[in-house]
Design goal:
The protein is an alpha/beta fold and about 375 residues long. It contains eleven helices and seven strands. It comes from Rotaria socialis.
């Protein structure tokens, strides 16, 4: 059984009332599954029932000699009935006194992805960040739980200083242990009614939706870039092309992808949103090109310069390419590279390091809500 862990250990307090907490998260993060585990019953959320908007997925959680109420909410990234779910979420946040706001975030080996998810959720309740406790689900997917837990706690403490605490668990974790850790956090927070006006919540939710849409487009772009990377790496390993030619070919492919993707997706976007997406894609291209160049150089070193037979094979490959309209100058350049045991610094990497491609931070971007007006 995988043990649930908490960043900052707390002693539970005996309260004279039953505290209440709310749980918020994206679809697939394990939010409702956790509620079922805590309530030890076949809990079903009523938040999707159009005839019962006043009812919420809520239940009592027994925690040794203590207990608390947990309120389930609609997934924040529902693709259907988005604004109905937004209304339900706002009502859940403001209807009664709350002690704690739990964010459930699915484990991702790319910690920056979890941080990004945190800030998207925090934008909905930014005034009450001190009440936020992050729960990382699917912890069993970590390949190095002990070290990753410490690294993750340090990163969240640095990037999300307003966050109160952090818990990790998996489906194999004891529901009672998870409930106990949650109660320790809940009992150390005062109950209060969250004051969030309709205008304030609408603005925050619109900003959240814009950010989510941009990230969704960027994720799709990353997947297409990764396909190009994989295809070109395989061609290197098979020696089906010249190394430097592959670098140039790769550069052209990802630039064409960015141009095509931009034309297909940025029309109609607010200029600031468009600039942010383009900046993220340019920054991604610069990073990927540099990483690709490093991989190519490593393969050049191992396949060309460390094995004389590889040198001979490469010369034969060059000769074959030369017979198929390869320029004489290119033939001489490759022969010179093959005979030289000292690997020269990759020109592509130099260009990348000196490039002035803007990063997301350099765009000074902020979310407008004009798309929803």
């Amino acid at each position: 059984m995988i043990q649930a862990l908490i960043k900052q250990k707390l002693d539970s307090k005996q309260l004279l009332y039953e505290p209440c907490a709310i749980i918020i998260g994206k679809s697939g993060a394990g939010k409702t599954t956790l509620v079922k585990k805590l309530c030890n019953e076949n809990h079903e959320s009523n938040t999707g029932n159009s005839n019962k908007q006043q009812e919420y997925g809520r239940c009592h959680v027994d925690c040794y000699e203590h207990g608390f109420t947990i309120v389930d909410t609609p997934a924040t990234d529902c693709s259907k009935e988005v604004y109905k779910h937004a209304v339900l979420l706002k009502e859940s946040l403001t209807k009664e006194k709350l002690n704690t706001i739990f964010f459930i975030i699915k484990y991702d080996g790319r910690f920056e992805k979890m941080i990004e998810n945190y800030f998207q959720l925090e934008s909905l309740v930014s005034k009450y960040a001190s009440k936020i406790v992050v729960i990382i689900s699917y912890w069993d997917q970590s390949k190095d739980p002990e070290n990753e837990f410490n690294e993750m706690c340090e990163l969240f403490a640095e990037e999300c200083p307003n966050m109160s605490n952090l818990i990790v668990y998996s489906e194999q974790s004891s529901g009672a242990d998870v409930a106990n850790l949650m109660y320790n956090c809940i009992s150390n927070m005062d109950e209060e009614v969250l004051v969030i006006t309709d205008e304030e919540f609408t603005l925050n939710f619109n900003l959240y939706e814009i950010e989510r849409s941009i990230n969704k487009l960027f994720d799709q772009y990353q997947k297409q870039v990764n396909l190009i990377v994989q295809k070109n790496i395989e061609s290197i390993e098979e020696k089906s092309d010249l190394f430097r030619t592959i670098i140039d070919k790769f550069k052209v492919e990802i630039e064409e992808l960015m141009e095509h993707y931009s034309e297909a997706n940025v029309n109609g976007m607010h200029p600031l949103d468009r600039d942010k997406l383009l900046a993220k894609m340019k920054n991604e291209n610069a990073t990927i090109r540099k990483e690709f160049a490093v991989k190519v150089r490593a393969l050049m070193s191992s396949n060309l310069f460390n094995d004389e037979r590889s040198v001979a094979e490469t010369k034969n490959m060059v000769a074959s390419v030369n017979s198929s309209d390869m320029k004489k100058d290119d033939q001489q350049e490759i022969n010179q590279n093959c005979n030289n045991k000292n690997t020269e610094q990759n020109d592509e990497e130099k260009n990348l390091e000196s490039s002035n491609l803007p990063t997301v931070e350099q765009t000074n971007w902020r979310c407008p809500c004009s798309l929803f007006q």
